[in-house]
Amino acid sequence: MFGLKPDLCSIPAPEAYYGMDDYAKSTARWCPGCGAHSILSSVHKVCKDKQYAPEKTVFVSGIGCSSRFPHYMGTYGFHGLHGRAFPVACGVKFRRPDLNVFVVTGDGDCCSIGAGHWVHAIRYNMKMVVLLFDNAIYGLTKKQTSPTSKMGTVSNTHPKGSVLPPINPLQTTLGIANVSFVAQTTDWHPAHLYATIRKAADHPGLAFVRIVQRCPIFMRDLYSEAATDPEALIMLSDDKGIQVDGAAAKSFKRVIQHDPSNMAKAREHAEISDGIPVGLLYQNTENPSYDDYGAYNLGMSNSDKADAINALLDNYAN
Amino acid sequence: MKKSKETSFADYFKEDIFSSSEKPLLEWEPPAKERDWTPVIAKALLASEPEKNAYWKLLRNYFLTGKKTKQSVPVHTQPLLMAPYLRGKNLDTGYPSFANTDTGDVIPLQEHLLSTFNVVFKEHEADILRQNLPRLDVYVRQSLDANGLPTPYLESILEACEKLREFDVRGDEGIHFRDNLLKYQNALSRFQGFILSFSHRSPFELQSLHLSHRNARRQMACGSVKNIHRLLSERLAIYSADASTDKSKMLNGNFADQLISIEKLADMVPEESHSALEPARLDRMMRCLQTLEGAKDTLPSVRPKIFSTAELIQDYNLTALFPESEVIQSEHKCFVDAQTAISEILSVVSETVRAMRTAQLELTDKYDAEVQELYLDKLDFTNYTEEEFLLLQTVLVILPADMIIAEELERFSKVLSVNLPIRIVVLDGMRATESGEIYKRELSALALSHRGAYVFQGAADTPSWLAEAFREGFNQAGASLWSLMVPEISTSCNTAFLQLNAAAESRYFPRWSYSHSRGIRFGSRFDISANAQPEHLFPYYSISVFVDDKKVKEKVALTPADFFYMEMEDTEKLEIVPPDFETDELVPLDIYLDSAPEDLVGMVPYIYLLDTKNRLYKGVVSYAFVNMCMERLDNWQFIQELGGINSHHVDQAIVWARQEWQVAKEKEIKDLEETHRAEIDKIRREEAAKALERLADVLLNLDVSAPASSPKNKSATPPTSEVPTVQEAAPAPEAPTPEVSSEAWVESYKCTSCNDCTNKLPAVFKYNSDKQAFVHDPKKGTYAQIVMIAEKCPALCIHPGLPQNPDEPGLEELIKRAEVLN
């Protein structure tokens, strides 16, 4: 009651309250049983809970099954070039820091053709949520090996099984400079999926979420066992991590304590091979964000800008 | 660059395709990133040793004389803790407040909205409405009176609810939202009262509301005077001499005379009953009746009397603020007038109370002259019941502190010593002079020394607490004094509020109250809990600052100096140390004030100041002001001691007790160690003997297993290094056979929203508000369909249960298939 305290009423409130339907648009055309359906409804729920204004929210995607995502959102969307979701999203955020930016990308889009942009987007650490839909296969083009396909994956490009070890997107992201948020979840655990995306949306920088996703058509066997086996998921638990409660929390049979500020441990857990670790691997809220610099002169009038440039050039006049 | 011949950048921007106007492209709010508002400690190169020494000489000169050096940084600054609020951040004020006229309570509107909400709805119910309660609060604020006068509660709340109803919530959630709002609105409209916003008149508004609430209750008390008068007159009418001649008057039924024969009834009333009454008793009762006769008509018409100076009456418009009271201008004899007024009231009321009590006793035939006569003669207002006390009309004196100190100190003291129920409001000015003449003479502390009176010190910045103080003070059977800090009338409301708040929080004008009636022990009568962090010398706040691009937490105290230097013009008088001259001899003011004089040689105290570009500087406080802060700290410690916090004597006692305890414990530990050592030696000797014996046995018998089974060694303890045998795990309880549900159901939290079931059997499966499936109606599909869907569900969260239609073909096989899914 006593002491200097700011008034709660001075916190601005939005002008409208948005329901789930405000974030949905048209019927999702993914195959029945595809994990992307689950991700879509979790994202709707996060947007509703955060009360993001649809006109202030942008979903940027590249090419692939996952990248159809913006079509199913009642927000702004950008279905872009293959592998170029990151640069477009960074551009949006750089000059419009007031927008809520989401990047939806797949294992091919991000880890193969877009890998160069992936590295720099992580380093720029602009505030956005990145959802990597990793089903370990190119589904849209009917089953080709992707950079995250396990060794020996039989596909149209490798009829006798793939021969190179896959990229581990978690380990790779953790290795990039200025990384600030890395989490993993699965599409078949909706409560954890929602909690992870929600945590990512609260993060002040770039939040990278790898979603282990089932492809019921081309990779039916890859996760079919894991999806029904309660022992398959390993929950990384911590007070600062991702919290699920009730029945959903009890469904995890294997739990490891993991402090998300511990990078070395995060790298160790990223390599777990006898199960799928889910939870927050790493978070650092203090990292610099490049969008701070982009926002620097917003709101400056044209004459102000002109005066500033003229003043600068006048230094060289004599 | 020759501007004339070339296209300037200004020209170029005029052709900007986005905008030709000078307005910015975007209506953009600054990002709410911490870095943008976190104070930064300016980077600096440290000055050379000789330069530093020279500056320090000048600085010490400033400290003693208050004359600023030439090096002082010429920036506009404000004290760090106050800066955000001085620059427009809204402070949590407790206003607007809701004054409930039914109960006389005053609570912040926010609290009222939330507590009513929690009564109507359970946790997790009506979440959208809960999230939008601040909006309702904002709407109410918008409807408040522009002049700061009390606004009728009901009108304002209903208007705000109407406005909230228009809030854009879509779909089904919108329907629920509006239903809930209606329910909430009904609950809110059960209250009655006013909404108060903060203004200079706030203390008087609170007082006026309390007075009118009190007057309403007083009318009820006057009603009971009437009641006793009626009962007594009825009784006396029976006994009176002319009763027999006009008995029918007593039974004056208005309509009853149509039905009953009054004449006949009158015959039944005892003829000579008054003859049973002693003349003394009759006389006593007649006298009571006479007194009550007069009192029942005069008492209700007595109005509260308020004595004040012409200036205050005009400044605060007291006549309009207290419409039910008589506001009397009384320049230099307020206390005399008040004393006369209360004496008059007291004489009437004490007569009345005596008559009432006698009458009550007489009516129940319990009056015993020997016991009661003397008691009732000596009865004074301190022994009145609550209802009797209400008959005493209020006499209020409102005076400025300076005037009392200059002219009326003797009268003031006398009023408090006599302890008549006079209510005094002392208005304390905001600013102390540098000479510190006024602030040391606190009238509240003076009143406290008279011990009988109720004393309160505070301001209108805590409305609930102040309202409670008024309630307590007005009910006090003795004098009460409210020493209130008031801002200058010309100050804007926001600044005024901040000033009051800072004065209290910085210990310049701490909040406390003392009531004689709270307890027998002197200490129990104090309350200092309304101060921020009362256990500390100053309240401390944790502030993040950037030092060399790293964020660190600084603990910053709010001191009286922060309050003195709130105005920007005032901080200009402070020496602002250039960052280059930073040394260890600069100490924060709170630490300086709390240190022993010998530790302070060469030290200079500072407070943190923030410039308009969020850079942090150290402003050195000169000796004159340090002295004043020191005096305020003494005052605070005086209050702390009275409030029983940080008492020096208790601290001393604890130190002694701890020392004694430590000595005793050390001795005990030593004794225990001795005993322990002796026991260990004994066991060691015994065990060694046993081990030798065992070894000898083994060697002689050459039977290795012998020691374990040997009855001799049964009592021998196993060596400690031995690993304890793992207890066999109890057999796992058999898993209970799961009960199969009679209907199909979905574990909704597992549903991955793949649309499969809802597309194929839309009548059976539907989505909930989280877009996760549930069974809407299991009878709308065949068991075969449900089993097939459950088998295909990628999350395996559909459980088909048992068939609904027993005549469906192929049930046996379907039930078998469903078994794994149930």
Protein architecture, described:
The complex is a heterodimer of chains A (318) and B (822). Chain A has helices spanning 20-23, 35-50, 85-95, 107-113, 115-124, 169-174, 190-202, 220-228, 247-250, 263-270, 291-294, 302-314; strands at residues 16-17, 57-61, 76-79, 100-106, 128-134, 181-186, 206-212, 233-237, 254-257, 276-283. By secondary structure, chain A is an alpha/beta fold. A nine-stranded mixed β-sheet of chain A has the order 3-2-4-5-7-6-10-8-9, sandwiched between helices. In chain A, strand 8 (233-237), helix 9 (247-250) and strand 9 form a beta-alpha-beta unit. The longest helix of chain A has 16 residues, at 35-50. In chain B, the strands form six sheets. Chain B has an eight-stranded mixed β-sheet, with helices on both faces. In chain B, strands 1, 2, 18, 19, 20 and 21 form a six-stranded mixed β-sheet that branches. In chain B, strands 4-3-7-5 form a four-stranded antiparallel β-sheet. Chain B has 822 residues and is an alpha/beta fold. Chain B has 32 helices and 25 strands. Chains A and B meet through strand 1, helix 1, helix 2 and helix 12 of A and helix 1, helix 7, strand 6, helix 9 and helix 23 of B.
